[in-house]
Amino acid sequence: MAELSFLDLVPVLENGTVSDAMARAARVAALCDELGYKRYWVAEHHAMPGIAGGATSVVLAHCGAHTARIRLGAGGIMLPNHAPLQIAEQFGTLDALFPGRIDLGLGRAPGADQHVARALRRGLSAHPDSYPRDVIELQQYFAGSPEPGLVATPGAGARPELWILGSSTYGAQLAAFLGLPYGFASHFSPQALDEALAIYRANFRPSATLAAPHVMVAMNVIVADSDDEAHLLATSFQQAFIALRRGEPGTGLKPPLPELVIPRGERPLPGRPLGMGLAAVGDLATVREGMAWLLERTRADELIIGSQIWDHAARERGVRLAMEAMASLSERQRAPTVSG
User: Fold this and answer.
1) pLDDT band of 339, cuts 50, 70, 90
2) How far apart are CA 218 and CA 9, in angstroms?
3) Crossing angle (nearest 10°) for helices 130-143 and 169-178
4) Fewer beta carbons under 10 A from the terminal one: N or C of the chain?
5) What does 205-255 look like in DSSP terms, one character per residue?
6) Distance between CA atoms of 236 and 198, rounded to whole angstroms?
7) DSSP-assigned states of every residue in 17-72
8) What is the pTM of this model?
């Protein structure tokens, strides 16, 4: 059965502080660790007032200090924004701090507009075709050295688990060519999901680190003790989506807004799009159905969920319920069938 992981944007609440967001991130990571989630990933975003994960490796170090077993990773690092040597040093450091627990998901998009890319210095100057070369250069830093006399310290000899992430067929082709695991961003751009997974599986070339294709798919999950409560909590996510579509960064994740609750008869089927990406919103049974739908559709090895909820107690409750949903799916799969 597929394993369950958590993707955190480290949301900053409206009128809240980054310090509070970091404290909540550590609590979520620790809870995921306690409940048996496979991975806790943080996504890189820049200059967005409601998201505090820009310094991704620093956030992961902070959360790592509050966990013991769960894998920690970037979901992902937008490689056009960085020199491969810098990423090798950062994730080599994390690997030294938390041996055997570090993941490094790599994305091709800059994840920022031109103003932010200019401020990052590298995003605008990177050649469109440099991404595959940068991924290979990064692998070489971890393996030892891309050229004589140039050794990443820390970094050389580190063994973070590398992933290629994407929302198009480009990343699928690269992951297949390099023999790396592939994560698809169906939580915000599911249009090419089926085509990308088919390309990845059909063209996969075994590598020294991975013998067969390995797929992770993403979904927004907002689960509560009732459907109505979950859809009320989801209005914070809906407000963030509306602001994004309008090009208004906002001032942080907003409290639920009852006027935005989708009427019962108009709610999308579990797993189907809410906003830009695939989502499961509802009680335990509803979310379990949504998870099962996506896993059956994709035959994914792993499911990673995002959950932007304004109230932290409700968010932690949702983290617990999501694992209950996944556990019940596993039990259903293991249950013996009775014939004839």
Assistant:
1) very low
2) 13
3) 30
4) C
5) ---SS-SS--EEEEEEEEE-SSHHHHHHHHHHHHHHHHHHHTT---SSBPP
6) 34
7) -HHHHHHHHHHHHHHHHHHT-SEEEE----S-TTB--SSHHHHHHHHHTT-SSSEE
8) 0.94
